[in-house]
Specification:
By secondary structure, the chain is mainly α. The protein has six helices and two strands; from the N terminus they run αβααααβα. Strands 1-2 form a two-stranded parallel ribbon. The protein starts with a helix and ends with a helix.
Protein backbone atom coordinates (compact mmCIF):
# COMPACT_ATOMS: atom_id res chain seq x y z
CA UNK A 1 0.00 0.00 0.00
CA UNK A 2 2.74 2.45 0.95
CA UNK A 3 4.75 1.47 -2.14
CA UNK A 4 1.79 2.38 -4.38
CA UNK A 5 1.38 5.71 -2.60
CA UNK A 6 5.10 6.51 -3.06
CA UNK A 7 4.94 5.46 -6.73
CA UNK A 8 1.93 7.74 -7.20
CA UNK A 9 3.79 10.66 -5.65
CA UNK A 10 6.80 9.97 -7.88
CA UNK A 11 4.60 9.99 -10.99
CA UNK A 12 2.97 13.25 -9.90
CA UNK A 13 6.37 14.83 -9.24
CA UNK A 14 7.63 13.70 -12.64
CA UNK A 15 4.55 15.14 -14.37
CA UNK A 16 5.01 18.45 -12.54
CA UNK A 17 8.69 18.57 -13.48
CA UNK A 18 7.90 17.92 -17.14
CA UNK A 19 5.24 20.63 -17.14
CA UNK A 20 7.50 23.16 -15.42
CA UNK A 21 10.02 23.48 -18.24
CA UNK A 22 8.93 26.14 -20.72
CA UNK A 23 8.99 25.27 -24.42
CA UNK A 24 9.73 28.15 -26.77
CA UNK A 25 7.98 28.22 -30.15
CA UNK A 26 11.09 29.72 -31.77
CA UNK A 27 13.59 27.08 -30.69
CA UNK A 28 11.74 23.85 -29.86
CA UNK A 29 11.89 20.71 -31.94
CA UNK A 30 8.70 18.93 -33.01
CA UNK A 31 9.12 16.46 -30.15
CA UNK A 32 9.57 19.28 -27.63
CA UNK A 33 6.51 21.12 -28.95
CA UNK A 34 4.45 17.94 -28.61
CA UNK A 35 5.30 17.76 -24.88
CA UNK A 36 3.03 20.78 -24.38
CA UNK A 37 -0.50 19.63 -23.64
CA UNK A 38 -2.86 20.44 -26.53
CA UNK A 39 -0.07 20.48 -29.13
CA UNK A 40 -0.24 17.46 -31.34
CA UNK A 41 1.74 16.58 -34.45
CA UNK A 42 -0.29 18.84 -36.76
CA UNK A 43 0.05 22.03 -34.70
CA UNK A 44 3.71 21.29 -33.97
CA UNK A 45 4.38 20.88 -37.69
CA UNK A 46 2.46 24.08 -38.49
CA UNK A 47 4.63 25.99 -36.00
CA UNK A 48 7.80 24.55 -37.54
CA UNK A 49 6.59 25.31 -41.09
CA UNK A 50 5.88 28.95 -40.24
CA UNK A 51 9.12 29.28 -38.32
CA UNK A 52 11.01 28.56 -41.55
CA UNK A 53 9.79 31.99 -42.73
CA UNK A 54 11.35 33.64 -39.69
CA UNK A 55 11.11 33.64 -35.92
CA UNK A 56 7.92 34.73 -34.21
CA UNK A 57 8.38 38.20 -32.70
CA UNK A 58 5.53 37.80 -30.25
CA UNK A 59 2.35 35.88 -29.50
CA UNK A 60 0.27 38.00 -31.85
CA UNK A 61 2.49 37.00 -34.74
CA UNK A 62 2.24 33.31 -33.77
CA UNK A 63 -1.56 33.63 -33.63
CA UNK A 64 -1.64 35.37 -37.01
CA UNK A 65 0.71 32.96 -38.79
CA UNK A 66 -0.21 29.53 -37.36
CA UNK A 67 -3.60 28.24 -38.37
CA UNK A 68 -5.37 26.62 -35.43
CA UNK A 69 -3.95 28.94 -32.79
CA UNK A 70 -6.24 31.77 -31.80
CA UNK A 71 -6.38 33.86 -28.63
CA UNK A 72 -8.17 31.15 -26.65
CA UNK A 73 -5.70 28.43 -27.68
CA UNK A 74 -2.77 30.79 -27.12
CA UNK A 75 -3.86 31.36 -23.53
CA UNK A 76 -4.26 27.62 -23.01
CA UNK A 77 -0.90 26.77 -24.61
CA UNK A 78 0.84 29.44 -22.57
CA UNK A 79 -0.66 28.05 -19.38
CA UNK A 80 0.72 24.65 -20.38
CA UNK A 81 4.26 26.03 -20.82
CA UNK A 82 4.57 27.35 -24.38
CA UNK A 83 6.41 30.64 -24.75
CA UNK A 84 7.21 32.89 -27.69
CA UNK A 85 10.66 34.42 -27.48
CA UNK A 86 10.61 33.57 -23.77
CA UNK A 87 7.31 35.37 -23.08
CA UNK A 88 4.01 33.99 -21.84
CA UNK A 89 0.76 35.00 -23.52
CA UNK A 90 -0.73 38.12 -21.93
CA UNK A 91 -3.85 38.61 -24.05
CA UNK A 92 -7.39 38.00 -23.00
CA UNK A 93 -9.58 35.36 -24.52
CA UNK A 94 -12.78 36.51 -26.26
CA UNK A 95 -14.93 34.98 -23.49
CA UNK A 96 -12.92 36.77 -20.81
CA UNK A 97 -13.14 40.05 -22.72
CA UNK A 98 -16.94 39.80 -22.94
CA UNK A 99 -17.14 38.97 -19.24
CA UNK A 100 -14.92 41.94 -18.38
CA UNK A 101 -17.07 44.28 -20.50
CA UNK A 102 -20.27 42.99 -18.89
CA UNK A 103 -18.86 43.76 -15.42
CA UNK A 104 -18.44 47.45 -16.31
Amino acid sequence: MIARWIAGLSAAALAAACHAAPVDANTATQAELETVAAIGPAIAQAILDERRHGAFKDWQQLIHRVRGIGPHNAARLSAEGLTVDGASYRGTTPARKKKDEAAR
